[in-house]
């Protein structure tokens, strides 16, 4: 198999410099059956051109579908026998793309302020720059970084858990105090109160002995095992994500280590517990103090921790196909939440790009879902088949069962084929509590569906005959913001 780009042979590991306006004319020669070719993780449609020769579809080459493939884009060609050619297409971004990239960073910086870095994410971004990590990869690396920092403390606490520091009293006759060790004698208290006093050595009456209670079922140990179980579950869940082989091996090793340290019967029988309201052990003991830090760090693994760099700057998040798409999604999500807050009231919850927010207005419940998947089955909203994780979904619940949904998917691409797949949410999201009388399938719940992409100019196109599906050209600019607000005003607005 031989790979050519714009007539130039592509060798393994080569770097091909191009401008954003240059076409991507890809040709695969000496390949009996159709190969698989991708640029920037996006598939390239191919067609046969004689015997053993395959070329990129002319419509894909000439259309604006690949204009967002800028920066360092991985080029991969694999033939049916498994032979592969890997290279990098380094496309210089145009001034328009650079301006949009700068605009989105400034908009997010203004909304988010200075993004805190409690987990040391800057080290991760610096170690793999200029490549921007995907959310799953960054989460896995953060978990490994947290484990490595806490490992000595976890091993120490697992081997020698602190017992309870409370002390128990045992009243003994004065005549039986000889030979008592490991206890404090409170010589200020006697029983009965009429014991002889003051004499140097009383001969009758009782006096209390105070000993440490050797109990390990303490609030601190319950909190420690709950943190360990949260970390272990998070690492096991990350093993199912698409992450690199070295990170995968590191997570597997870390999970095995945790199981070996905390696998004793004592730790396994101990129930989970929350952090004690006041505990100088968590504050002052070196091992337990690190576990308290770990519990706090695990709580920071959501929201702006993922998908947004710790330092919002052009140096921290260079132009790549992935970074442009993430910035575009986050910017649109900010606009939608702000539009809802102007009508329903500001939320106290911090901005989070992977969760749901709820407002109540009279008898109506309004739910904003940002990148939250719908289940395949259930009693409320479901997506039994097809795509189930829109970037933005707005649910209007007028009663327990009646719901109208607006879905907005966001893609930094001009590929019409990709946009047509995204507006398919109008057919996938359904109301699980209601059934179609003919098919007995859950009823459709999506009332409006649109896809936003960065067109050359702000504008909207309705899919003919649909009435509910729209293509929204929302360039990163003030005009794009106004267009998105007008779409929300004409769809969701009259229902609020």
| Shape by Cα distribution | globular
Number of strands: 23
Q: Total number of helical segments? A: 13
Distance between the termini: 59 Å
Oligomer: single chain
Estimate the mean pLDDT confidence: 81
Into which percentage range does the β-strand content fall? 15-25%
Secondary-structure topology with pairs:
Elements lengths: L1 E4 L2 E2 L5 E5 L6 E4 L6 E4 L2 E2 L2 E3 L4 E4 L1 H5 L8 E8 L5 E9 L2 H18 L8 H8 L6 H25 L7 E7 L10 E2 L20 E7 L6 H20 L6 H17 L3 H5 L10 H5 L1 H13 L22 H24 L11 E6 L2 E7 L10 E2 L9 E6 L5 E8 L5 H7 L2 H4 L1 E6 L6 E3 L1 E8 L5 E4 L6 E5 L4 H14 L5
Parallel strand pairs: 3-10, 18-21, 21-23
Antiparallel strand pairs: 1-2, 1-4, 4-8, 5-6, 5-9, 7-8, 9-10, 11-13, 12-13, 14-15, 15-17, 16-19, 17-18, 19-20, 22-23
Written account of the structure:
It is a single chain. With about 500 residues, the chain is of the alpha+beta class. Helices cover about 35% and strands about 25% of the residues. The chain contains 13 helices and 23 strands. It has a seven-stranded mixed β-sheet, with helices on both faces. It has a five-stranded antiparallel β-sheet with strand order 2-1-4-8-7. A hairpin with a 2-residue loop joins β14 and β15. α4 packs antiparallel against α5 and α4 runs antiparallel to α9. The longest helix is centred in the N-terminal third of the chain and has 25 residues. It starts with a strand and ends in a 5-residue tail after the last helix.
């Amino acid at each position: 198999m031989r790979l050519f780009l714009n007539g130039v042979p592509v060798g393994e590991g080569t770097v091909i410099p191009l401008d954003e306006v240059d076409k991507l004319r890809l040709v695969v020669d000496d390949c009996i059956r159709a190969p698989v070719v991708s640029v920037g993780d996006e598939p390239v449609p191919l067609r046969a051109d004689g015997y053993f020769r395959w070329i990129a579809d002319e419509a894909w080459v000439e259309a604006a579908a690949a204009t967002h493939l800028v920066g360092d884009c991985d080029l991969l060609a694999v033939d049916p026998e498994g032979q592969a050619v890997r290279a990098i297409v380094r496309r210089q971004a145009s001034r328009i793309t650079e301006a949009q990239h700068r605009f989105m960073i400034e908009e997010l910086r203004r909304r988010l302020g200075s993004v805190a870095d409690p987990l040391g994410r800057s080290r991760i971004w610096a170690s793999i720059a200029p490549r921007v990590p995907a959310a799953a990869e960054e989460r896995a690396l953060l978990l490994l970084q947290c484990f490595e920092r806490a490992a000595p403390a976890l091993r120490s606490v697992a081997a020698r858990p602190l017992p309870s520091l409370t002390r128990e009293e045992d009243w003994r006759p004065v005549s039986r105090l000889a030979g008592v060790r490991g206890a404090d004698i409170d010589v200020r208290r006697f029983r009965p109160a009429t014991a002889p006093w003051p004499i140097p050595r009383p001969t009758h009456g009782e006096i209390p002995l105070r000993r440490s209670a050797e109990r390990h079922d303490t609030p601190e140990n319950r909190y420690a095992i709950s943190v360990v179980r949260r970390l272990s579950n998070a690492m096991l869940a990350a093993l199912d994500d698409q992450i690199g082989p070295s990170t995968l091996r590191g997570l597997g090793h870390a999970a095995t280590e945790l199981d070996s340290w905390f696998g004793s019967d004592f730790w396994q029988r101990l129930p989970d517990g929350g952090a004690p309201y006041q505990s100088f052990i968590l504050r002052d003991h070196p091992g337990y103090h690190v576990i308290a830090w770990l519990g706090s760090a695990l709580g920071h693994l959501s929201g702006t921790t993922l998908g947004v760099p710790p330092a919002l700057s052009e140096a921290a998040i260079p132009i790549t196909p992935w970074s442009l798409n993430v910035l575009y999604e986050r910017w649109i999500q900010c606009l939608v939440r702000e539009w809802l807050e102007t009508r329903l009231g500001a939320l106290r919850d911090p901005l989070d790009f992977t969760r749901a927010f709820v407002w109540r207005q009279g008898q109506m419940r309004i739910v904003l879902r940002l990148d939250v998947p719908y289940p395949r089955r259930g009693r409320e909203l479901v997506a039994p088949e097809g795509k189930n994780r829109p970037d933005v979904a707005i649910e209007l619940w007028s009663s327990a069962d009646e719901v109208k949904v607006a879905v907005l998917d966001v893609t930094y691409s001009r590929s019409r084929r990709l946009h047509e797949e995204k507006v398919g949410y109008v057919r996938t999201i359904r109301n699980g509590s209601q059934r179609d009388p003919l098919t007995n399938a859950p009823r459709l719940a999506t009332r409006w569906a649109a896809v936003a992409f960065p067109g050359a100019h702000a504008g909207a196109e309705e899919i003919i005959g649909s009435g509910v599906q729209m293509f929204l050209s929302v360039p990163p600019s003030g005009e794009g913001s106004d267009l998105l607000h007008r779409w929300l005003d004409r769809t969701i607005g009259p229902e609020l």
